[in-house]
Design brief:
globular; six-stranded mixed sheet; Nuclear Transport Factor 2, Chain: A; 6 helices; alpha+beta; about 325 residues; single chain; about 40% strand
Length: about 325
């Protein structure tokens, strides 16, 4: 395991198990419909530039793109109309909910992701991520592949996995990236990855490279410019639908411009993210059915090198 995971893999699995009394209280307080309704209330308020009527706790904490700020600042000043496509991931057991969508900002389309914690039907944590084209983030935000209906489908009972196991399986994805080894990741061979609204796996064939699924991409070592996946925060887990959501910081030092690929030999790394020191926040969700990763959906946010997520990691195991 990498430096982060060696210290924290056991801790994140431990943190995933919510005491029964806390889970019951969270569920009784706000079910799936309640959580998504609160998010819709938040989204409706954004274009009004007025957060004062939102149901928030006195101690609510708000960040935008990892920076702590006053609720009502940042995108709240510039937000326009929301696009109709909305993708929710709800976790009534933990009282948490995630959202993917798009919003107009001064006439430009931006990607909007949210992670919120709710206690007694009030927001206690609001983590807002805004991906803007002006930051050179990849993708055409006006021509995005629609979110697959698969994400909203329940997993057959026989194929479901408990919360801690779903997190363990998703974490193997990041172990595979760090080690350049797709064989340790429980991929479904027909799996799809969508990032910023375009398909990055299976990749299309190019004149110098064949089409590859996610496992083949990892094994080719073409992602070796990602030296570490830090601050792995698994935040929202929907056991019924087999979905895990979290945020993850990819470290790109900027001085790894070649890969020694077992499949292609020595190849140049052409990704723009490899060309300079940066940290990329990956806002990622995994659809898991029968212990296999079927689909991956992510927003990619470019940040300064060694940027922290603005929220604490899972507590280290004593």
């Amino acid at each position: 395991m990498g430096a982060w995971s060696a210290r924290a893999a056991a801790a994140l699995l431990l943190a995933a198990v919510i005491p029964t009394n806390q889970a019951s209280a969270a569920t009784a307080s706000c079910n799936r419909s309640c959580l998504e309704g609160l998010v819709n209330q938040y989204l409706a308020a954004l274009p009004t530039h007025d957060a004062s009527r939102l149901p928030v706790a006195k101690t609510v904490r708000f960040t935008e793109n990892t920076n702590a700020m006053k609720l009502g600042d940042g995108l709240w000043r510039t937000a326009g109309a929301l696009e109709p496509d909305r993708f929710f991931i709800s976790d009534p057991q933990a009282g948490q909910v995630a959202f993917y969508g798009r919003i107009k900002e001064n006439g430009q389309t931006a990607l909007l992701a949210l992670r919120m914690k709710v206690v007694d039907r009030k927001f206690t944590e609001i983590e807002q991520m805004v991906v803007r084209k002006s930051s050179n983030s990849p993708g055409d935000f006006d021509k995005m592949i629609p979110v697959s209906a698969t994400w909203g489908q329940t997993v057959p009972v026989a194929n479901r996995r408990p919360r801690a196991e779903l997190i363990r399986l998703a974490n193997l994805y990041f172990e595979g990236i760090e080690k350049g080894n797709g064989d340790i990741v429980p991929f479904d061979d027909t799996g799809i990855r969508i990032e910023n609204g375009f398909q990055t796996a299976p990749s299309r064939a190019t004149p110098d490279r064949p089409a590859m699924n996610v496992r083949e991409q990892f094994n080719s070592k073409i992602f070796n410019y990602i030296t570490e996946v830090q601050h792995r925060r698994f935040l929202v887990v929907d056991e019924e639908r087999g979905v895990v959501f979290g945020t993850f910081m990819f470290k790109h030092p900027g001085d790894i411009l070649e890969a020694n690929s077992p499949r292609f030999g020595k190849v140049k790394i052409t990704s723009a993210l490899a060309q300079y020191p940066n940290t990329t926040q990956i806002i990622e969700a995994f659809k898991i059915d029968g212990g296999r990763i079927k689909e991956i959906y992510a927003y990619v946010s470019l940040l300064p090198y060694e940027q922290k997520p603005g929220w604490p990691d899972a507590p280290a195991k004593k």
